[in-house]
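Input/output pair, single chain:
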Amino acid sequence: MKTIALAGLMAVTATFAAAEGVNHKVAVHIDQNDPAVMNMALNNVENVISYYTEQGDTVTVEVVTYGPGLIMLIDGQSPVADRIAAMSLEHDTLTFDACANTLDGMEKKAGQKIPLMSEATLVPSGVVQLITLQEDGYAYVRP
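Output:
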């Protein structure tokens, strides 16, 4: 009797999981100051979100920038600022991470504070953030 009840409970759980869809997690790596690479990354993000949404699934995407790629999130310098602003408004599960190590180095070199876009979230280290996300089950994408 316990086996039948357990099998029934597992079937109900599987049905609810299927009805709710799957939550996918994706980390996108940007370390180049190249508008073509940045746009390709944003195209990838849009395509992934669109695909999983059409499947009835959800997807959490974190775009992690560091090194020369941090330009992507610098206010007044990002070649993709308009796209980031629009995508951030459209997708609640999309975040843009800026490496604090890279920002600190850029500010020391410039001798002044460098403002990030309002959509940026400062993380201590872009590389460590990518490692942490992958350890947490995020798929890794580098355009």
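The longest helix spans residues 35-54. The longest strand covers residues 23-30.
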